[in-house]
Design goal:
Strand order of the largest sheet: 3-2-1-4-5-7-6
Number of helices: 8
CATH superfamily: Vaccinia Virus protein VP39
CATH topology: Rossmann fold
Structural class: alpha/beta
Strand content: 15-25%
Radius of gyration: 18 Å
CATH class: Alpha Beta
Order of helices and strands: HHEEHEEHEHHEHHE
CATH architecture: 3-Layer(aba) Sandwich
Shape: globular
Mean pLDDT: 96
Number of domains: 1
Distance between the termini: 31 Å
C-alpha cells in the first residue's frame, strides 16, 4: 500500500476522530453496508473486519451477539480512534482492534466464521494485490464460513456516468487512493477459486438518487458534503427496493468450501 494512501487515511483519523466520517462522509451508504453485512453474523460467531478504520461500523454488529469481533487496519491512527470508540461503547470484552494488513493478515488459517471488508481492497493499487487480499480473507475464514467483500466497482461507475452525461453533468471519478474493482475480472478470479459466491447490489437506488437525481431536482451547492436531504429519502427507498446496476458499492458474498 502506497505511503500516500496510508498518510491520507491516518490524516482522516486525526481529522474526524470517532466519527463515521473518518472512513466516509456518506453515513447512509455506511448504514447500507452495515445492514447488508449484518445478517451474515450470528450469535457465537468469530468475526474479523479487515480494514475496520476507526471501528464505527464494527460496533454496530454487537447486537448480533458474536463470540468475538476483531478489527484490523493498516493505519495505526485509525486503530487509536477505534480503541477510543471501544471505550465510548463501554469496552465490551469480545471486541478488539489492532494494526494489520489485508495482504498479510496476521491470523492463522480457518480462524473466523465471518470475514468482511468495507472499501478496503480498493485501497490496494493493483489488481494483483487485490487478489492477494481476497485470498488472505478466504484463508483466515473457516470452511463453510462467509467472506463478504463490500467494495466499489468500476462498471456501475461507468453506467452512472453515462446517465450523468445525458444531462451534461460532470463525471464521477475515483479518488487518488482508490482503484475500483472490475466485475469481469473478479468473476473470472472467483470462478477459478471454485468457491460459491453471489454479488449483492445493495445501493443502486441510493446511488441513482444521491449521485444523479439530486442534481436535477436540488441545487447541490446548497448542501455541502453528503448533507443533501434527498439522500435520506433514497436511503429509505433503497432499504425496500434495489437493482439496476448503478450501485458502485456492492457486496460479494463468498462461501468457503471445505
Amino acid at each position: 500500500m502506497g505511503d500516500h494512501i496510508l498518510e491520507f487515511w491516518s490524516s482522516q483519523a486525526v481529522k474526524h476522530g470517532k466519527s463515521h466520517s473518518a472512513s466516509w462522509g456518506d453515513n447512509f451508504a455506511i448504514y447500507l453496508e452495515i445492514q447488508t453485512i449484518g445478517p451474515y453474523i450470528h450469535s457465537g460467531d468469530k468475526v474479523l473486519d479487515v480494514g475496520c478504520a476507526n471501528g464505527y461500523s464494527v460496533l454496530h454488529h454487537l447486537d448480533k451477539k458474536p463470540a468475538s469481533l476483531t478489527g484490523i487496519d493498516f493505519s495505526g491512527a485509525m486503530i487509536e480512534e477505534a480503541n477510543n470508540n471501544l471505550k465510548a461503547a463501554g469496552s465490551p470484552a469480545n471486541v478488539s482492534f489492532e494494526t494489520g494488513d489485508v495482504r498479510h493478515i496476521q491470523f492463522d488459517d480457518n480462524s473466523f466464521d465471518v470475514v468482511y471488508t468495507t472499501r478496503t481492497l480498493i485501497n490496494l493499487p493493483t489488481w494483483k494485490e487485490q487478489q492477494t487480499g481476497i485470498n488472505e480473507c478466504i484463508r483466515v475464514c473457516k470452511p463453510g464460513g462467509k467472506i463478504i467483500l463490500s467494495e466499489a466497482f468500476w462498471e456501475p461507475l461507468v453506467l452512472l456516468n453515462a446517465m450523468r452525461s445525458l444531462r451534461s453533468l460532470p463525471p464521477l471519478v475515483e479518488h487518488d487512493f482508490n482503484r475500483y474493482i472490475k466485475l469481469d475480472k473478479l468473476n473470472e478470479f472467483l470462478i477459478s477459486l471454485k468457491h460459491q459466491y453471489q454479488i449483492i447490489d445493495f445501493s443502486s437506488v441510493y446511488y441513482l438518487g444521491s449521485r444523479f437525481l439530486r442534481e436535477l431536482v436540488t441545487n447541490p451547492s446548497d448542501y455541502p458534503g453528503y448533507s443533501n436531504p434527498i439522500n435520506k429519502i433514497f436511503y429509505e427507498i433503497e432499504k425496500e427496493y434495489s437493482g439496476g446496476g448503478f450501485g458502485i458499492q456492492q457486496a460479494v458474498v463468498i462461501t468457503k468450501t471445505k
